[in-house]
Amino acid sequence: MSRTTEPHTEAGQQADDRVRDEKKSGFALQLHAFWHAVAFLTRFPVPKRLQADAWPLSPPLYPLAGALLGGALALVAFLLEGHLPPLVLAMLLITCWVYMTGGLHLDGLMDTADGFGSQRPRERILEIMKDSRVGAMGVLAAVLLLGNKLMILAHLQGGELWLGILMAVIWGRSTMLIALYAFPYARAEGLAQTLNRRQPWIRLWPLLLAVPGLIWLQWTVIFPLLACLMLISASKRKIGGLTGDVYGALCEVVEVTVLLGFLVA
């Protein structure tokens, strides 16, 4: 009896071991994808050696990376509120905000403003957006956005301040994720093309992190929705789709309009 069952038992054990190995490798791949998202969206330190094949899997984890970034900013606001004048605290928060992101999305906003504000043909707009130099429209867009963010933060207090920051950052990265998969990419090639691979819907679970913002914003959710609609419509009309710069612009616009929603609500 034992002779006949031993091979089956050994085969079953090997199968179980393979399943466990696959689960471990799958978890490791997702963990590396998360660190790719953190490395791309923030200046936070991450492990030096990351699996290259985990890079295309990183977009669904953008809201999770946003929660990490937003949590750090919210902690700064929580610890320093009451110890600094509101305007000084707001300026310090914006400085930390820009530093922790490396100005990545702000750069996208400026490039988008320069391109769309040029009123040129599609190919020329794409060239302007790719140019590393910043024009007058880009400077104006950055100054106006940061100025609005500064004044809104200065008038938020208590839970509205730190929760507003947390939700604004998560919503900004969630918007990038949705835009990446829901709308066509305008360029034939680019960094976003390496990320624009549809994922199983179950992997989009980090979007649930944005749900508390819906409860708090109530009717003011119309602010970020309208802002996204206007920018995406302009992008599709002018260049036939979205680019990495537009994703960054969406992130910045959503952040400031979510903060505005918290102030109004």
From TrEMBL:
<keyword id="KW-1133">Transmembrane helix</keyword>
<dbReference type="Pfam" id="PF02654">
    <property type="entry name" value="CobS"/>
</dbReference>
<feature type="transmembrane region" description="Helical">
    <location>
        <begin position="244"/>
        <end position="264"/>
    </location>
</feature>
<feature type="transmembrane region" description="Helical">
    <location>
        <begin position="87"/>
        <end position="106"/>
    </location>
</feature>
<keyword id="KW-0472">Membrane</keyword>
<keyword id="KW-0808">Transferase</keyword>
<dbReference type="GO" id="GO:0051073">
    <property type="term" value="F:adenosylcobinamide-GDP ribazoletransferase activity"/>
</dbReference>
<feature type="transmembrane region" description="Helical">
    <location>
        <begin position="161"/>
        <end position="184"/>
    </location>
</feature>
<keyword id="KW-0460">Magnesium</keyword>
<comment type="function">
    <text>Joins adenosylcobinamide-GDP and alpha-ribazole to generate adenosylcobalamin (Ado-cobalamin). Also synthesizes adenosylcobalamin 5'-phosphate from adenosylcobinamide-GDP and alpha-ribazole 5'-phosphate.</text>
</comment>
<feature type="transmembrane region" description="Helical">
    <location>
        <begin position="204"/>
        <end position="232"/>
    </location>
</feature>
<keyword id="KW-0812">Transmembrane</keyword>
<feature type="transmembrane region" description="Helical">
    <location>
        <begin position="61"/>
        <end position="80"/>
    </location>
</feature>
<keyword id="KW-1003">Cell membrane</keyword>
<feature type="transmembrane region" description="Helical">
    <location>
        <begin position="134"/>
        <end position="154"/>
    </location>
</feature>
<keyword id="KW-0169">Cobalamin biosynthesis</keyword>
<protein>
    <recommendedName>
        <fullName>Adenosylcobinamide-GDP ribazoletransferase</fullName>
        <ecNumber>2.7.8.26</ecNumber>
    </recommendedName>
</protein>
<comment type="pathway">
    <text>Cofactor biosynthesis; adenosylcobalamin biosynthesis; adenosylcobalamin from cob(II)yrinate a,c-diamide: step 7/7.</text>
</comment>
<comment type="similarity">
    <text>Belongs to the CobS family.</text>
</comment>
<dbReference type="InterPro" id="IPR003805">
    <property type="entry name" value="CobS"/>
</dbReference>
